[in-house]
C-alpha cells in the first residue's frame, strides 16, 4: 500500500482530483492523469500537458493602473495533447460510463514511476474485453511521455480498432471566481504545424506573445491503416483482428521546446525519437532511476501505513515537478495542474528547497542558479519600486518579472528577497562550496542587503521596516512585520559575515561588479544590530507587526465551515481589520531563525497565534507541526503532521483538482526531519533534538551534509546516528557535541 496509490472512483469531483493525484512528470514535462479516451460528453475534464517554464504573457487589465504596477502576467501554457487513444470493439466505443464495468483498478506505482489502468468491461451490446493502459514520463529521457495499451478480447469481439490522436488545438483551463486559478486567456498557443512524415507524427505550436515554440513528435509500434490531419489534430487509425491473443500498441511522444532545444524543435524531436528503447526497457530505466532516488530520499515510519503512503506520495511528486535545468524552477502546483498559472513563489526556497538540499545538493544548486539568473529582473524591480540599489524578487513569476497584479499580498511581500538569500546561505552551510559563495552567494546577499538598508530607517534607536506584508496574506501593508524584520536581520548579518570571509581578490571582483562601497557593508551591520523585532511586554510574545494585537479578534465561533477559506468569502479589508492569520507568520520566523528569541517567548507566541490561524494556506500545517514538536506538544505535532502528509490525498483544501500543493509536500519532509527529528542547520554544523510521537514507533531517514551521507533512526527511546558514506562528522545531539566515525552506529537516549 505504501508504495502504491489506487484510485477507482468514477464520480465527477473525484475524477478531477485524480487527474492531479495520478499526474506524471519529470521536472521538464508533466501530464495530468486523464483517461486516454476521455469521459464522454456529460463529465468535465481538465486535460493538460505542460512544459516547465513554457509560458505566454498576457496584458493585465486594471480599472485604475498606478505607477510600477506590472503590465504583463506570465502563464504556463497547456501544450500539445498526445494522450488521446479511443478503442472500438466492432465499432462499439469503449467507454467506462456506458455498459458494465466488471473491474476497474487505477494505480500510481510510486517506486517504479508509472501509472496503470486495468479495466474489465462489457459493452452495452455484450462485447467483453480487458484493457490495460500503462504510461510513464521518463526521468532518464526527459522529453518522453509514453503510453502502452493492451487489449484482450474475451467475448463477442471480432475486430479491435484504436484511434490515436495528437492534438495541437488546445486551450488552458479557466475558472471564474477563484483567484488561485486562471480566470481568462484560455488560448495561449497557436498551431504552427501538423503533419505526417514517414513514421512520425509532428505537431508544433507557438505561444501568442512570447514567441516560444514546442513540438511533439510521436511514433507507434504498429502501422496505421489511415492517418488524417485536420485542424491541428493528427488522427491515426489502427486495425486489429481479435482471436490471436492480446493486442498491444505503444505510443511514444517526444516533447521539445525552444528554451532547451533551440529553434529547430522538430528536428531535435525526430533525433530523440530515433534513440528510444522499448516500453519494457523504459520501465527498467525508470525503476533504476527511482531506486537511486529512494536510497537517500525515502523516509520510513512505522505504525501508520496511511502516513507512510502520504510521505512517499509527496516526495515522489516533488521529484516529478522540480525543474532540473537552468531555465526552470518548481511551480506552486508543480506540473500537475494550472493552479497559480505555473508561477514560482517563495514556496520553493522555504518549503521545498530543504528537501533537495539535504538529499540531492546538485538539484538544489540548480534551483538556486535559476533564481540567480533572474537577479537582473530583481534589480530592475527594486528600481521600479523607488530603490536606488538592491534586488527585490517577485512574489510570483516564471522568468523573473513580477506577475502579480494585487500588490498588497504580492509585491509588498518584501520578505521574499530575504527568503531567497536564506536558501543561498543554507546551501553554503550544507556544502561549504567556496566557489559558489564567491561567484553567486555573495552577490545575492549583497544585493538583498542593499534592499533592506534602502527600505528601512532608523527611529528611536531601532532599524524599522515600514509598509510591507509578511507571509500572512490576511494582514497586509503593515509596519515592522516580525517575520520580515527577522529574516532581514538574518540576511544583513550574513551579508556582512560573507564580506569578511571573502579574500582580497574576491572583494575587489564583487566591488567592481556591483559597485559596492565599504560604507555599505558597515551599514548592513548597523541595520542588523539595531533591527526592531516587535515584542509585547503585556503578553510576552512577539507581535506579528506594530498593530496586529490592537485589532479585534476574528469571530471564529460564528464563522461557518462554508465560509472557509476566508479569502473567497470576505473582502480583503475585512480580513485586514481583524486578528486572523491565513498561515504561520511569526511562528514561521521562530522556526527559521529561532536563535533570535528565547524558548518561552516562542512558546507563548505559538500558543497565541495558533488560536487565530485558519490554515487556509497549505503552507501552514507543517510549520505548526514543526514548532509543536520543538515545544513538546506531541499530540499537536502529530495532528498537524497528519494534515500535512495527506492534504492532497484527502483533498483537505478542496482544490486538489487544480494541481497538487508542492510547498505542503516539501513541508511533509520538513515536519519529519526538522520537526520530529529536531534538525537545525547552524554555522557549527548539524543539531538534533528529537521528539518522536508514539504513533510512529520508528522514524528513519538519510541526509547529505558536507560530502557525507548520514542515516538517522529514531525509536520511542533511542536515536541512532550512522555515517554511511564519507569522513567522520561532528554533530550536536540535544546540545552536546558528538563525533561520528564512518560506519559506526552511535546511539543515544532522548
From TrEMBL:
Residues 8-255 form the Glycoside hydrolase family 65 N-terminal domain. Residues 679-740 form the Glycoside hydrolase family 65 C-terminal domain. One of its GO terms (molecular function) is carbohydrate binding. The keyword Glycosyltransferase applies. Substrate binds at residues 346-347, 582-583. Belongs to the glycosyl hydrolase 65 family. GO terms for biological process: carbohydrate metabolic process. The active site is at 473 (proton donor). InterPro entries: 6-hairpin_glycosidase_sf, 6hp_glycosidase-like_sf, Gal_mutarotase_sf_dom, GH65_N, Glyco_hydro_65_C, Glyco_hydro_65_M, Glyco_hydro_65_N, Malt_Pase/Glycosyl_Hdrlase. Keywords: Glycosyltransferase, Transferase. The keyword Endoplasmic reticulum does not apply. SUPFAM superfamilies: Galactose mutarotase-like, Six-hairpin glycosidases. Residues 312-669 form the Glycoside hydrolase family 65 central catalytic domain. This is Alpha,alpha-trehalose phosphorylase.
Amino acid at each position: 500500500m505504501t508504495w502504491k496509490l489506487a484510485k477507482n472512483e468514477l464520480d465527477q469531483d473525484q475524477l478531477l482530483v485524480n487527474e492531479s493525484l495520478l499526474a506524471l512528470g519529470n521536472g521538464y514535462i508533466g501530464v495530468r492523469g486523464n483517461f486516454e479516451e476521455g469521459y464522454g460528453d456529460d463529465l468535465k475534464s481538465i486535460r493538460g500537458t505542460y512544459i516547465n517554464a513554457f509560458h505566454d504573457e498576457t496584458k493585465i487589465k486594471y480599472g485604475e493602473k498606478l505607477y510600477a504596477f506590472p503590465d504583463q502576467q506570465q502563464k504556463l501554457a497547456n501544450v500539445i495533447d498526445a494522450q488521446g487513444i479511443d478503442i472500438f470493439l466492432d465499432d462499439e466505443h469503449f467507454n467506462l460510463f456506458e455498459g458494465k464495468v466488471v473491474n476497474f483498478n487505477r494505480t500510481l506505482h510510486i517506486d517504479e514511476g508509472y501509472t496503470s489502468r486495468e479495466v474489465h468491461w462489457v459493452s452495452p451490446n455484450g462485447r467483453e474485453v480487458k484493457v490495460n493502459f500503462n504510461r510513464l514520463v521518463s526521468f532518464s529521457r526527459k522529453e518522453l511521455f509514453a503510453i502502452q495499451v493492451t487489449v484482450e478480447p474475451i467475448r463477442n469481439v471480432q475486430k479491435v480498432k484504436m484511434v490515436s490522436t495528437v492534438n495541437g488545438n488546445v486551450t488552458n483551463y479557466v475558472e471564474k471566481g477563484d483567484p488561485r486559478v486562471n480566470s481568462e486567456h484560455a488560448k495561449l498557443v497557436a498551431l504552427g504545424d501538423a503533419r505526417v512524415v514517414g513514421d512520425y507524427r509532428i505537431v508544433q505550436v507557438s505561444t501568442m506573445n512570447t514567441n516560444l515554440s514546442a513540438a511533439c513528435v510521436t511514433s507507434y509500434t504498429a502501422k496505421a491503416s489511415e492517418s488524417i490531419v485536420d485542424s491541428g489534430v493528427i488522427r491515426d487509425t489502427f486495425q486489429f483482428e481479435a482471436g490471436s491473443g492480446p493486442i498491444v500498441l505503444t505510443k511514444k511522444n517526444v516533447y521539445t521546446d525552444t528554451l532547451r532545444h533551440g529553434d529547430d524543435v522538430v528536428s531535435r524531436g525526430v533525433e530523440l525519437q530515433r534513440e528510444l528503447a522499448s516500453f519494457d526497457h523504459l520501465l527498467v530505466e525508470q525503476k533504476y532511476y527511482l531506486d537511486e532516488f529512494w536510497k537517500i530520499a525515502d523516509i520510513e515510519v512505522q505504525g501508520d501505513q496511511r502516513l507512510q503512503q502520504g510521505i512517499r506520495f509527496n516526495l515522489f511528486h516533488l521529484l516529478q515537478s522540480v525543474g532540473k535545468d537552468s531555465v526552470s524552477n518548481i511551480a506552486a502546483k508543480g506540473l500537475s495542474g494550472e493552479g497559480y498559472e505555473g508561477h514560482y513563489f517563495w514556496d520553493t526556497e522555504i518549503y521545498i528547497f530543504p528537501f533537495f538540499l539535504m538529499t540531492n545538493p546538485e538539484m538544489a544548486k540548480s534551483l538556486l542558479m535559476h533564481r540567480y539568473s533572474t537577479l537582473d529582473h530583481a534589480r530592475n524591480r527594486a528600481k521600479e519600486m523607488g530603490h536606488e540599489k538592491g534586488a527585490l524578487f517577485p512574489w510570483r513569476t516564471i522568468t523573473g518579472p513580477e506577475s502579480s497584479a494585487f500588490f498588497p499580498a504580492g509585491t509588498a511581500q518584501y520578505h521574499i528577497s530575504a527568503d531567497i538569500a536564506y536558501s543561498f546561505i543554507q546551501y553554503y552551510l550544507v556544502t561549504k562550496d567556496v566557489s559558489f559563495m564567491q561567484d553567486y552567494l555573495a552577490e545575492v546577499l549583497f544585493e538583498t542587503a542593499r534592499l533592506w538598508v534602502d527600505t528601512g530607517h532608523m527611529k528611536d534607536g531601532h532599524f524599522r521596516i515600514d509598509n510591507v506584508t509578511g507571509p500572512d496574506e490576511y494582514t497586509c501593508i503593515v509596519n515592522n512585520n516580525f517575520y520580515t524584520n527577522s529574516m532581514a536581520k538574518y540576511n544583513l548579518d550574513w551579508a556582512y559575515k560573507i564580506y569578511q570571509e571573502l579574500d582580497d581578490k574576491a572583494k575587489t571582483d564583487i566591488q567592481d561588479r556591483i559597485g559596492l562601497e565599504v560604507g555599505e557593508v558597515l551599514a548592513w551591520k548597523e541595520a542588523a544590530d539595531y533591527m526592531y523585532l516587535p515584542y509585547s511586554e503585556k503578553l510576552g510574545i512577539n507581535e506579528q507587526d506594530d498593530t496586529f494585537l490592537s485589532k479585534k479578534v476574528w469571530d471564529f465561533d460564528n464563522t461557518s465551515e462554508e465560509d472557509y477559506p476566508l479569502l473567497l468569502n470576505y473582502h480583503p479589508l475585512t480580513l485586514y481589520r481583524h486578528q486572523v492569520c491565513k498561515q504561520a507568520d511569526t511562528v514561521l520566523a521562530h522556526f527559521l531563525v529561532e536563535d533570535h528569541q528565547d524558548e518561552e517567548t516562542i512558546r507563548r507566541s505559538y500558543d497565541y497565534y495558533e488560536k487565530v490561524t485558519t490554515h487556509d494556506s497549505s503552507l501552514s500545517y507543517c510549520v505548526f507541526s514543526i514548532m509543536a514538536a520543538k515545544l513538546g506538544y506531541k499530540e499537536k505535532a502529530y495532528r498537524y503532521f497528519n494534515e500535512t502528509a495527506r492534504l492532497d490525498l484527502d483533498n483537505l483544501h478542496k482544490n486538489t483538482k487544480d494541481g497538487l500543493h508542492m510547498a505542503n509536500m516539501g513541508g511533509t519532509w520538513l515536519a519529519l526531519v526538522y520537526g520530529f527529528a529536531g534538525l537545525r542547520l547552524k554555522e557549527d554544523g548539524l543539531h538534533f533534538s528529537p521528539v518522536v510521537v508514539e504513533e510512529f514507533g520508528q522514524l528513519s531517514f538519510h541526509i547529505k551534509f558536507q560530502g557525507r551521507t548520514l542515516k538517522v533512526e529514531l525509536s520511542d527511546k533511542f536515536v541512532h546516528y550512522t555515517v554511511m558514506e564519507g569522513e567522520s562528522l561532528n554533530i550536536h545531539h540535544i546540545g552536546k557535541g558528538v563525533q561520528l566515525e564512518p560506519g559506526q552506529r552511535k546511539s543515544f537516549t532522548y
